[in-house]
Design a protein that fits this description.
CATH architecture of the largest domain: 2-Layer Sandwich
CATH superfamily of the largest domain: Bira Bifunctional Protein, Domain 2
Number of helices: 13
Largest sheet: 8 strands, mixed
CATH topology of the largest domain: BirA Bifunctional Protein, domain 2
Radius of gyration: 28 Å
Number of strands: 20
CATH class of the largest domain: Alpha Beta
Structural class: alpha+beta
Distance between the termini: 18 Å
Helix content: 25-40%
Strand order of the largest sheet: 8-12-13-20-19-18-17-16
RNA sequence: GCCGGCGUAGCUCAGCCUGGUUAGAGCAGCGGUCUUUUAAACCGAGGGUCCGGAGUUCGAAUCUCCGCGCCGGCACCA
């Protein structure tokens, strides 16, 4: 069937060529987008001719008239081609266009009897012949497997999907704007690393042929950004792809976009303020009101966010006094799922935070917080550990865990230690999973809905 | 990795539980009619390895098993 379709369309392409029409032509310059063209008419009856270009999505023929919807990057505009205006031959060519073809059209804008703002086709040019059938015009494309594997079809057929990805870039642009305003510089650090540090995760491994050396794809940005603070950049951020060799889920894609930033002379209190500002800024970028909802559950993003110590929350929810990894385990099992509205959870156990500064009043805990919304983590931040001797001891403790078989324990990084030995200024750092934030702000249920080309198994 | 659900025409879906003539519908495509339509309508003729394989049976889209893919949950994690 598919091959029949291709066969018919390819035959059509040859017929077009034989009649002197280039089915993959060029040179047509639209003067207006569909939306701009429609705005032109105002109260007028008719406008001077304009040129629009896009993909033919719907065709309705009625004798000597063809109505069609042209879809471009902005939206849609109806076209009307008339036998009387175009003449028999050109009209026939227009009527012979297929849904999915990309065409350029020139003509005045007018209103039909039913009031639809329409471009009257005075001339047109086939720009790109489509060989494949478009998804169903009324129900659209629903099959999620096709939507994710063939995102291009999804984007054609489901305009609201385009809007999600537009919102995604607006969110990122807005956040960058905030950083730029505050004097942060954006930097690029290595994706290919010898030692994949800065987080707890299994890395992807690869191999450099001419160096004959195994390398890892980064799992976090932290250690290189902190090296830059050692170098004298006082405010840096990076929004970059990181890779974690772990399972897939509606909240996990093996490659995802992480924001990290580091600010000299700040501590985690300052970073909490920054996170609140970033969330507001991102919500504005997305066009989402602060009092909104996610998948039917209301979520109020209005700062200030609630602040609670992890140990207090665990005591409140379980009645237990705990410390170390046990505290964190109890928190994740009993408390985290119940934190629905934005909550800063403070003061994590030192054992699970090898890069964070201990609290002055109780070195069993570090100055670290995570922002939890709807039971999910949206930000992770701490006052950074700047003492190189303590940092080495932390790495050694991790190395012991690693030797005991914990593959996600933090690896020793001698070069990072060397940098810290030169002197890392006191600073606060932050990491935010951008994809999850975009999910929240665009009300999308799966991370695959905010990543253009999510990881899939091999197509069969 | 484990558990559950799903997989029928290009697309959206019926049919499956309770096995039985050539597997259906709408849209799209093809051939017609129709000059202001809005999911256009009407007429006509097409289009399927019913995810793949094996089994049970006189007979399998339908029941069983194995495999693949997708979705969800758990595990891991952000």
């Amino acid at each position: 069937m598919t091959e029949d379709f291709l066969h018919d369309r390819l035959a059509k392409v040859e017929r077009l060529r034989a009649s002197g029409v280039d089915p993959y032509s060029r040179g047509f310059k639209p003067t207006h987008s569909s939306v701009a063209a429609k705005e032109l008419i105002g109260d007028a009856e008719r406008t001077p001719p304009v040129s629009v270009a896009g993909r033919l999505m719907v065709k309705r023929q009625q004798g000597g008239l063809v109505f069609a919807d042209l879809q471009d990057g902005q939206g849609r505009i109806q076209l009307m081609a008339s036998r009387n205006i175009l003449g028999e031959e050109e009209f026939g060519r227009f009527a012979d266009l297929d849904l999915g073809d990309i065409v350029g059209v020139t003509g005045p804008i007018f209103r039909t009897k039913r009031g639809e703002i329409t471009a009257e086709v005075q001339s047109f040019q086939l720009l790109t012949k489509s060989l494949r059938p478009m998804p169903e015009k009324w129900h659209g494309l629903k099959d999620v497997e096709i939507r994710y594997r063939q995102r291009y079809v999804d984007l054609i057929a489901n305009p609201e999907v385009r809007e999600v990805f537009r919102a995604r870039t607006r969110i990122i642009t807005a956040m960058r704007g905030l950083f730029d305003e505050r004097g942060f510089i954006d930097v690029d650090t290595p994706v290919l690393q010898e030692i994949p540090g800065g987080g707890h995760a299994r890395p992807f491994m690869t191999h450099h042929n001419s160096l004959d050396r195994d390398l890892f794809l980064r799992i976090a940005l932290e250690l290189h950004l902190k090296r830059l603070l050692v170098g004298g950049f006082e405010r840096v951020y990076e929004i970059g792809r990181v890779f974690r060799n772990e399972g897939l889920s509606p909240r996990h894609n093996p490659e995802f976009t992480l924001l990290e930033c580091y600010q000299a002379y700040a501590d985690y209190e300052d970073v909490m303020q920054l996170v609140e500002d970033l969330v507001v800024c991102a919500a504005m970028g997305a066009g989402r009101p602060l009092q909104g909802s996610y998948q039917g559950e209301s979520v109020d993003l209005t700062p200030p966010f609630r602040r609670e110590r992890m140990a207090d929350l665990v005591l409140e929810h379980t009645g237990r006094h705990a410390a170390g990894e046990e505290l964190n385990d109890l928190f994740e099992e009993h408390v985290e799922p119940r934190l629905r509205q934005p909550t800063f959870v403070l003061d994590y156990p030192v054992e699970i935070s090898p890069l964070a500064r201990p609290r002055d009043d109780d070195p069993r805990f570090v100055e670290r917080f995570e922002l939890i919304i709807l039971g999910r983590e949206y930000a992770n931040a701490f006052t950074e550990l700047t003492d190189p001797v303590d940092q080495r001891a932390r790495f050694e403790a991790q190395a012991a865990l690693r030797a005991a078989g914990n593959v996600e324990a933090h690896p020793m990084d001698e070069d990072f230690l060397r940098a810290v030995e030169y002197g890392l200024p006191p600073c606060g750092g932050l990491g935010v999973g951008i994809d999850r934030l975009v999910m929240l702000l665009t009300d999308q249920p799966s991370i695959r809905d905010v990543i253009l080309f999510p990881v899939m198994k091999a197509e069969t």
